[in-house]
Amino acid sequence: MAKGKGKDDKKKGKGEEESKEEKPKESEKAPDFFRHPYVRYLAYAPEFGNALATFSPCHFGKFWCYFNKITQTYILLDSLSKGNAAYLQNKADEQQAEKPHPIMVALDRYVWHMFASVILPRYSLYGIRQSLIKFSNFARICQEPIRTYFVTALALASIPVIIKPIDELTDHIMDNSFRKIYGLGDKPDDKDKKDEDKDDKDSKKDKKKK
Predict the structure, then answer these.
(1) How does residue 22 score in pLDDT terms, banded at 50, 70 and 90?
(2) Residue 15 lies in a domain
(3) Residue ranges making up the domain that contains 164
(4) Is residue 23 part of a domain?
(5) Using one digit for the tens of pLDDT, what is the confidence trace for 133-167?
(6) What is the Cα 53 distance to its own chain's centre?
(7) CA 151 and chain centroid, separation
(8) H helices present in the chain, as ranges
(9) C-alpha angle 137-122-53 in degrees, rounded to nearest 5
(10) Which sign does the torsion angle of CA 134, 51, 115, 184 carry?
(11) What angle separates helix 102-113 from helix 159-175, to the nearest 10 degrees?
(12) Is 42 within a domain?
């Protein structure tokens, strides 16, 4: 009898370990295609259009509107995809108590892009450009039109550096403002992580007291 119980306990232990291993796999989400670093460059297409207009000897300004439409299409596709994903998830998880509305999810992504893809990049690159112009004028590095090319090239080179900080700043702004209003704040996984962190801190404090 004792041997039989021991075997049952081992089977239960193995079953629990397998279930723990399967849970992280289920919780892992597919990477967001529209947040991929290379895809995020589509949000900065107007800046590349401005650069081409600066470097091109012909009148390239008439084609700048097409670069602007690339960014608009990118924002629209990302917003619609997030709304569609929320709709399909709500349809699949019928027992879920709090279901985010697909329209609100799409609106959340659209507002996110207004900050991360339009407002903050435009003002950031404008500030970088103005700083480079003042520096080049002060240092007298080169004369026109080489100075213009120099400023434009360095402004474009700064785009890979500012993409991630701007995205993270926008996430922080959205989490502490709009998402609290929409009801799209901390997800259950995030809450569990915060609770685990609190428990770890409390256990460390108790050990120090002992």
Answers:
(1) very low
(2) no
(3) 69-185
(4) no
(5) 888 887 777 777 777 888 888 889 999 999 999 99
(6) 29
(7) 28
(8) 2-27, 45-55, 64-92, 102-113, 120-139, 146-157, 159-175, 178-182, 188-209
(9) 65
(10) negative
(11) 140
(12) no
In a domain, 177, yes or no: yes
CA distance 139 to 127: 18
Quickly tell me which residue has 């709709």 as its tokens. Answer: 87
Burial group, residue 92, by CB count within 10 angstroms (0-12, 13-18, 19+): exposed
Record the tokens describing residue 199, joined without a space: 């428990």
Task: Report the distance separating Cα 72 and Cα 170, nearest Å.
Answer: 18
Q: How many domains does the chain have?
A: 1
* pTM metric for this prediction: 0.70
Residues 6+ away with beta carbon under 8 Å from 111? 174, 178
Residue the block writes with tokens 């922080």: 172
Could you give the C-alpha distances from 24 to 17, 19, 29, 113, 158, in angstroms and in order?
12, 9, 10, 30, 37
